[in-house]
Amino acid sequence: MPQGLSLLDPVQPDGVWHLRGVVENHQVKAPLGRLHWQIGPHFFGIDDSYGQPILARAYYDPYQDDDPRARGDVDFLGYQQFVQVLFDGVPVPPDSYGGQFADRGPYAAADLSFVDYMGPADAVASAHATRQPFYALTGALPVPVASARDFGTYPRRNGVLLFPSAPATPNQARCASLVSAVSPGLLTAGDLRDLLAPIAPYRSLRPTAADVALRGVFDIALSELVPKGQSGQRYRDLAGEVVGPYLLVRQGAQCFCVAPDPAGTRIEIYRLDPADVESARQSAVLRGMWKMAELVPLGDGVDSRRVVADLDNSVLPELGPMWTPRSPAAGGVTIAPLEFGPTDLAVEWRYTTYLFAARSHPPGSAGNPLGELIGLHGFTWSILQSFDIFANELVATSVRAPRLLTEFPALPALRHYHEQIARWSTDPSAVPGIGVDAFTAAGVTPLDFGAGRKLTALDERAAG
Which one-letter DSSP state was computed for residue 49? Predict the structure, then answer.
């Protein structure tokens, strides 16, 4: 690989950044996002077209890497990703947050960081050679991984692996990449199912298989909600949020839910009361915040608010309609455990996205803690959430700019992952699973929702 040159070339057609050079055909443009950075040999982009998921994309340019360990006797290179959730600056277990991370508890190490990877049940079912948690391998879900080599061709839903010695073919990837779906919302598919159960669909569609393959179920449904001649992949007056298999759509003061069947042969559109949706969202947020608050030493402030939250409504009539607390044990509260200001950071999702080289035989001494892996370099970045005191909602507001890492900081989480996989491999009957929606959401139909909140880059170097 030529060093000191650039393989990947960022371009910005139609206001969104892409990369050329991911395959031999330079006309192919790989999506990057509305915001992007370059960190050493890594390109990183954020796509917030949807309110959720936020798509985070990373690409590794081997031509810009002067690390000799990335060359020579290397089978392939790829990204692994690790996460730590912080509440008011303090790490908390992932399952205390809930939402996308509700089932990640088994992967949490002593420092509460965890690997961002398919569930233990899926990892154990995969071939032994692919049990290293390369993020691209989640692109096989919902079926087990067969061979890592299957992930060297572009495009792939969750990214690709780079095989330096692979023969050049039109779709052979020339770089490693990662596509991660970040869904900070705490509203669940179960919450929406409860809201949909007692009402009849507003519209019911029966698209052809060819139309579903060409446009995707969400785009087909959205064409029913906008004036004729304004449909397509750009919906400037709509806000869209994916929740499990559903698409929640805001159109001014109206709220709709798109509910396709698994095969996409029937699409039902429901009209929902926005107040009911927000009530379900608020309950989920406050439950999560109180659960996190129970786990961190936040002092007398949270203790006093816990007392208020445990009181019966009738005890505090003079406080007015804003104060209608219910006990957390009764299923929810209507006040937050802390008083957050509008600019305060309530929750941080801190990511480590790191590039590894894999070799068939471990290099060096037998004491290499990574085994056949060589940790090369990567970067850390964060999604930041503030708490809206008026809506009782956690809101993803900004992205903390990526920072280059040359030493791998997540060894406890990686070791814990391998310990758990080894443990469950000997007792597969008890192996836990992780929902695949967190990974399959990276394959959402590219749609441009113009309404709704967009993220702010907390770094003036971000190109946007």
Answer: S
- The single-letter DSSP state of residue 90 is E
- Pairing status of strand 267-272 against strand 254-260: antiparallel
Q: Are 374 and 104 in contact (CB under 8 A)?
A: no
Three-state DSSP class for 109?
coil
- Say which residues have a Cβ less than 8 Å from residue 369's Cβ, sequence separation at least 6: 411, 415
Q: How many CA atoms lie within 13 A of 200 on its CB side?
A: 1
What is d(CA 424, CA 100) in angstroms, rounded to the nearest whole number? 23
| 0.85 surpassed by pTM | yes
Distance CA 409, CA 89 (A): 18
Which of these, 175, 134, 141, 173, lies nearest to 157 by C-alpha position?
A: 141
Per-residue pLDDT tens listing for the chain (464 residues): 555 578 999 999 878 999 999 999 989 999 999 999 999 999 999 999 999 999 999 999 999 999 888 887 889 999 999 999 999 899 999 999 988 898 999 999 999 999 999 988 888 877 555 678 999 999 888 776 667 788 999 999 999 999 998 888 899 999 999 999 999 999 999 999 999 999 999 999 999 999 998 889 999 999 888 865 454 557 888 999 999 999 999 988 999 999 999 877 899 999 999 999 999 998 888 888 888 888 877 655 555 555 555 544 444 444 333 333 444 444 445 667 677 877 888 999 999 999 999 986 554 444 455 558 899 999 999 999 999 888 888 999 999 999 999 999 999 999 999 999 888 888 777 788 888 889 999 999 889 898 888 999 987 555 55
Q: Is 47 left (phi over 0), alpha (psi -120 to 50) or beta?
A: beta
Q: Which residue has the tokens 């998921």?
A: 53
* CB count in 10 Å sphere of residue 27: 6
For residue 357, list its beta bridge partners. 77, 374
Q: Distance between CA 217 and CA 39 in Å, rounded?
A: 36
Apex CA 127: angle with CA 124 and CA 132, to 5°?
75
C-alpha to C-alpha distance for 308 and 38, rounded to whole angstroms: 48
C-alpha closest to that of 196 among 253, 262, 265, 245: 245
**Euclidean distance between CA atoms 147 and 140, whole angstroms:** 10
